[in-house]
Structures are given as structure tokens and as C-alpha cells.
Amino acid sequence: MKKIKKQKAKLQDKGMNAMHELFCRAYTGYTDPDCFNNKTKSFIYANHLEKEHAELLTNSQAYISGAKEKLKRFENNCASQAVHLFRNVKIRDKINELFDSMFDDTRHADRELAYLIKQKKDLPSKVQAIREYNRMKDRIKKTESTESVSFTWDMGEGTGKTDTASPIKTVTITRKVEDNDDVEFDD
Asked: Does the pTM of the predicted model rise above 0.70?
């Protein structure tokens, strides 16, 4: 009980109440990932209006008379209230503070990477996430080596030049080769 009173006192010092704190946490995705960077959804979440919103959404999808207009008015009202909240400097400061703490913590990045690996909708992103995970965990070791190829040809024949000092020309090409590179040269 003392802990709750201390938290409320801390919020009061910042000029914020519990709903403001919940709005900030929802907006930054701490409490509900669906609300991330969405002021209207964050406002609905912070004011515990999800049930009412879901009911209006269901009614509008069922083509109940006047339901679409009610839903639109409800969402517009929530959006305007959310914009009003977002103009509060203390709330924006709290959101920035939460974003900063979110990206200082590597667990968040690991959680997002795990989400990309587990999802099945965007396969190129999934494959890239698996590659990144393997690179981070050093599961695939890349060793570099060099490979040289020499080309030799006679500059004196058929050119009409009579350079006796160096009739044969040699060029060497060297490049880095990694373990997962496929390198083929024709003989």
C-alpha cells in the first residue's frame, strides 16, 4: 500500500495522474504493442474504453443502424482527447523518457528480434532476422582467406609489336573469399 502511495505522490509531483502514466506506457508499447505510436488507441486503452470500442466496432461491422456514425464519433472524440493530452509537455517528456529507457535495454531489441523470427507473414524479414540472430550469437563463423588467379598471354604475337624486353604479360587478381561464397573458375 505504501508503494502505491509513493507512486501516486511521484506522479502528482510531475503533474500527471495514473491515466496519464498509462497513456504514456501504452503509446510507447510497454503495456500493449497494438497501441504503439497510436494516440487514439493509447487513449482508449488508458481510459479502459476497449470494451465500448469493441462493441461499437462489432455493431458497425454488423451494419446496425447508426453504428458506424457512433463509432466514428467515438473515435474522433478519443482522437481529439489524445491530441489534447499529447500537447502536455510533461506527458511528452514522460514518453521520451520511456523511449530512452526502452532502447537502453537490450532485452527489448531481443524481444523484437524474437517476434520477427516467430512471425510467419513476412518471410524475407524472418530470414533476415534469423541471419541477424545467428550473427549476434556467433553461431556462424566466417573465416576469410584470399585466393589468387593469374592470367598470362603473349603480347608479341599478332600485334605487330616487337618488344623483346617483355613479350609475355601476366596479371594477378586477388580477392577475399568467405566460407559461404561459391567460387568457380573455368580451366
From this structure: no
